[in-house]
């Protein structure tokens, strides 16, 4: 269990996976988007793009393993 937690922490530090805060921020932006979509859409798209850049290399590695 500790090893898995340590691996996750290391991956977050390296920027390979998003932090919980980054994910929560996206959901918060979705809530704002629902209330006022014209103002929050550009910010939401930017944040989602940042997460995609972090997650995509990790997904590529996982695809190679499978």
Task: Spell out the key features of this protein.
66 residues, 3 helices, 86% helix
Question: How would you describe the overall organization of this protein?
Answer:
With 66 residues, the chain is an all-alpha fold. It has a domain at 41-66. Helices cover 86% and strands 0% of the residues. The protein has 3 helices and no strands. It has helices at 2-13, 20-35, 37-65. Helix 2 runs antiparallel to helix 3. The model has no long low-confidence stretch (mean pLDDT 74).
| Series of H and E elements | HHH
Give the biggest sheet.
none
**Ranges with pLDDT <50 over ≥5 residues?**
none
Give the number of DSSP strands.
0
Helix content: over 70%
Oligomer class: single chain
How many helices?
3
Alpha-beta content class: mainly alpha
Percentage of residues in strands = under 5%
N→C terminal distance: 23 Å
Q: If you compute it from the alpha carbons, what radius of gyration comes out, rounded to the nearest whole angstrom?
A: 15 Å
Mean pLDDT: 74
Mind sketching the topology for me?
Elements: H1 2-13, H2 20-35, H3 37-65
Helix pairs in contact: 2-3
Short description:
This protein is mostly helical and 66 residues long. The protein is 86% helix and 0% strand.
